[in-house]
Amino acid sequence: MKHLIVANWKMSPNDPKRARDIFDIVKGAVAKLRSVQIIIAPPSIFLQSLASKYKGNKISLCAQNISSSEDIANTGSLSAVQVANSGGRYVMIGHSEVGDTLDNLRVKTFLTVKHGMIPIIFIGESERDKLGKYLKNIKLQINTALKELQTKEVENVIFCYEPIWAIGQDDPMDSYDIHATVLYIRKVLIEVYGDKIGQNINILYGGSVNSNNIKDILSIDDVNGVVTGRVSTDTEEFVELLKIANRT
C-alpha cells in the first residue's frame, strides 16, 4: 500500500509562478517514486490552473475548505461544486485553523461526497486530559462528520488525526500516543461500520511532520500517511520527506 502524503500549502505561496514552480518540482520528484501518493492542497486561487497542467495519477488536488452552504448569496465563499468543476478531487474538512463547528463538519462532508469528491476529515483534541475525555470528543467528531453518509459512501473517506496542540511544534506527539489514538479511531469506525470498512479507511497523522520524523511516523502501525503543513512549500525539505517516505 502506498503512503498517502497530503501537502497543505495553507496561504502560501504569494504568486502564481511560485505555485507552478513548487508543483513542477514535486511532480518531477514523484515521477521517480513508487510508494507514495501525493495530494496537494493549494490556496483556492491556484487550484484550477494547477489542475489544468497536470493529468497524471500520482498527484491529486485538494481544496483547503469549502462553504457549508450551496446558496449563491455567500460572498467570498467556495462551493463544493466549484471545487469539483475546477479539478479538485479531495476537500479538507474541519482543519483547526478554519474553525468549523460540528455541524459544519457534517454538512461539508455530505456536500463533498455529494459532488463526487473525497473528504479528508480533521479530528483531534485541543488538549489531553488525564481522564481521557478527549476520546469522547474525537468519537463525537467522527460520528457527526459521517452522519449524513450512506455506509457505502464511508469507504472512501479519509481521516486525519491532528492534535491541535501539536500544530507548529518542533516535534510531533509521542509515537505510542499516536498509535493508541489511531487505534481508538479505527475502533470507533469498526463499531459503527463493521470490520471490513473500519479496517480499510485511511487514517493519517498531522502535526509538525517533517523529513526528520516522517520515517518514525509512517512506521507506526495503522498510520496510512501524513498531512504536512509548513514544509510543503519548502521544496528541498518536502522532496527529501517524499524520498524518505518512499523508502519506509
Description:
By secondary structure, the protein is of the alpha/beta class. It has one domain (3-247): Aldolase class I (TIM Barrel, Alpha-Beta Barrel). The chain has ten helices and eight strands. It has an eight-stranded parallel barrel, surrounded by six helices. Helix 1 (16-30) packs parallel to helix 10. It is globular, with a radius of gyration of 17 Å. The chain starts with a strand and ends with a helix. The mean pLDDT is 95.
How is this structure best summarized?
The protein is α/β, with parallel strands linked by helices.
Write the layout of secondary structure elements.
Blueprint (H helix, E strand, L loop, with lengths): L2 E6 L7 H15 L5 E6 L2 H9 L6 E5 L16 H6 L4 E4 L8 H13 L3 E6 L9 H13 L5 H4 L3 E4 L13 H19 L1 H6 L1 E5 L7 H5 L6 E4 L6 H13 L1
Parallel strand pairs: 1-2, 1-8, 2-3, 3-4, 4-5, 5-6, 6-7, 7-8
- The span between the termini is 11 Å
CATH topology, by name, is TIM Barrel
Structural class: alpha/beta
Low-confidence stretches: none
Q: What is the CA-based Rg, rounded? A: 17 Å
What is the CATH superfamily label? Aldolase class I
Mean pLDDT: 95
> How many structural domains are formed by the residues?
1
Element pattern in H and E: EHEHEHEHEHHEHHEHEH
- Tally of separate helices: 10
Hey, roughly how much beta strand do the residues contain?
A: 15-25%
Number of strands: 8
Describe the sheet with the most strands. 8 strands, parallel, barrel
Spatial order of the strands in the main sheet?
A: 1-2-3-4-5-6-7-8
Q: How much helix, percentage-wise, in residues?
A: 40-55%
CATH architecture heading? Alpha-Beta Barrel
Shape: globular
| CATH level 1 name | Alpha Beta
